[in-house]
């Protein structure tokens, strides 16, 4: 059973290169994307919504043109292992999830999804075999219509320089940027002097001109 244009082994290699290891979730996700894609109309441009931030977004990014960076993939983290591919002109889409009833026949997948075993207890080889063999058969498929707010183009409006940090930010966020409003996730402890020639960290005597 192929995953988009890849044989299963090829997809495993691509997942390993992109995701760091052949994570079961990204492999199952491959079949999920394949199934959703099969049910999309031939023409039209589609976007993606992913209902979890774990693993599944990487299957979407590997197998479709939709990425976080280009804005065609939106993650709505509601904790469900499901994805939707939809036509962005009208919101008509296909949602694919994992069907708990159907994985009963595949005990290793079942204990992976429901976290019944620790990683150590997991039989990875058996899990891989069951993922490969079950393919799309563990998936549930539905037709959906995506809410209009996902179909509108997101405009950021005017960009201004924050009077506090002196960086560019969307002016709609307020008089100062969201970082300076307290949302920054770190504390800056040292501001390196930018006005002098910098020394390269990897080569101590190398001066960057
Ligand atoms: Zn700022």
Give an account of the 3D structure.
By secondary structure, this protein is α+β, with helices and mostly antiparallel strands. The model has no long low-confidence stretch (mean pLDDT about 90). It has two domains: about 140 residues, 60s Ribosomal Protein L30, Chain: A, CATH 3.30.1330.130; about 40 residues, Wheat Germ Agglutinin (Isolectin 2), domain 1. Strand 8 and strand 9 form a beta hairpin. The protein contains six helices and nine strands; from the N terminus they run ααβαβββααβββαββ. The strands form three sheets. A five-stranded mixed beta sheet has the order 2-1-3-4-5, covered by helices on one side. Helix 2 packs across helix 3. Helices cover about 30% and strands about 20% of the residues. It starts with 7 loop residues before the first helix and ends with a strand.
């Amino acid at each position: 059973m192929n995953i988009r244009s890849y044989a299963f082994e090829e997809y495993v290699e691509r997942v390993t290169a992109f995701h760091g290891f052949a994570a079961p979730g990204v492999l199952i996700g491959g079949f999920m994307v394949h199934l959703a894609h099969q049910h999309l109309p031939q023409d039209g441009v589609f976007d993606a919504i992913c209902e979890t931030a774990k693993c599944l977004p990487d299957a979407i990014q590997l197998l479709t043109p939709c990425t976080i960076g280009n804005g065609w993939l939106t993650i709505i983290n509601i904790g469900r292992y499901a994805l939707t591919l939809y036509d962005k002109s009208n919101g008509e889409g296909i949602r694919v999830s994992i069907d708990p009833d159907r994985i009963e026949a595949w005990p290793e997948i079942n204990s992976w999804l429901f976290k019944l075993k620790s990683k150590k207890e997991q039989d990875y080889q058996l899990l891989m075999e069951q993922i490969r063999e079950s393919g799309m058969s563990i998936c549930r498929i539905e037709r959906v219509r995506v809410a209009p707010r996902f179909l509108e183009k997101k405009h950021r409006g005017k960009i201004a320089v924050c009077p506090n940090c002196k960086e560019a930010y969307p002016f709609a966020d307020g008089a100062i940027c969201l970082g300076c409003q307290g949302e920054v996730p770190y504390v800056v402890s040292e501001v390196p002097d930018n006005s002098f020639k910098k020394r390269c960290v990897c080569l101590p005597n190398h001066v960057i001109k």
